[in-house]
Amino acid sequence: MNKSYTIFKVLVAASFMLASVSVANAQVRVWVSGVGLDTNPCSRTAPCKTLSHTVAMAPVNSEVNCLDPVATGNVSITKSITIDCHEGFVANDSTGTTILINFDLFDASDARKSVRLRNLNIHGVTSNTRGIRIFSSVPVPDSAVHIEDCVIDGIPGTPGSGIADNRTGGGRLLITNTTIRNTSGTAISHLPNSGSTRVDITIDNVRIYNCAFGIAVSSGARVVVTNSVIADCSNAGLYAEGPIAPSDFHANNLALNNNATAIQQVAGGTIRIGNSQITNSTANGTIGTVFSYGNNRVLGNAGTTALTPVGADSHSNGQQ
Q1: Which residues neighbour 121 within 8 Å (Cβ) at sequence distance 6 or greater?
Q2: pLDDT of residue 64
Q3: Cis peptide leading into 243, omega within 30 of 0?
Q4: Average pLDDT score, the chain
């Protein structure tokens, strides 16, 4: 009886050990710390050191958490993953892109094709060319990128983009509660690598300061931006163009202040704006045809600002 009971206990213990090994191999959360080591297993008690290494080690669909300020290196994301660095600081002074999301390199078995970046404070320092770049050269229509509660500060290189979406063939980009400032180029841009398949972009509660362009979109983009501030852009706060396919821009409840041009529409782009203020433009309030819902406040712009009523069957200003 005692011998049988002992064997039973050994079998039970072995089963628990196997279960623990299985959980470890399917780890859903990995950790990074400025005082960690990249030879560590990236666990909570033995974190890795750099974000680039930790992301490379993380399983598909897992979450990377920062315990304290960390260095990045240039991070390449080629799998569905979440990076959440709550109160963490991510600094990168290497040439190139701080975070590259390359959907071309996602495995075919990665059905989600979803990347979430939260609570990242990216400081480009002196030589970065892009804060976050999203790329694909082939259609990835189900791909999705969520950028939440982030700060991108100082992207001085060329093209100097804060967030650049260069996907071909569709997808979604959602940016919320994020600040982008001091970029030599465009704070948020969509310019497809090739083609013109629709990309849906939703931007809410975003603050953009001291950039060349605030939000600029091109072929195939459909953008909604709400509850945001765009100020001190040396070219234009909002910019929309074709040329391969129409881009469509809806803006509501924006403060566009002290930009060279607040809003610029180029052939192939459509811009509609409501419940917003266009103030203190140093050159022009608007360039091109900008449609208004008739409830904007326009004041103090150096150049003339001509807004065109949206128009609809039920109301001259499209209000229903």
Answers
A1: 85, 88, 89, 90, 150, 151, 153
A2: 96
A3: yes
A4: 87
In a domain, residue 23? The reply is no
Enclosing domain of residue 236 = 212-320
Q: Which two tokens stand for residue 162?
A: 């804060």
pLDDT range class, residue 88, cuts 50, 70, 90:
low
* 174: phi then psi, degrees, rounded to nearest 5: -125, 120
Give the Å distances, CA to CA, from 303 to 58, 259, 296: 53, 12, 17
**251 and 316 in one domain?**
yes
Q: Residue 251 pLDDT > 90, yes or no?
A: yes
Is there a contact between 189 and 160 (Cβ–Cβ < 8 Å)?
no
Q: Does residue 136 form part of some domain?
A: yes
- Cα atoms in the 13 Å half-sphere on the side-chain side of 90: 29
User: Do 162 and 81 share a domain, yes or no?
Assistant: yes
The residue that leads in pLDDT, 13 or 316, is 316
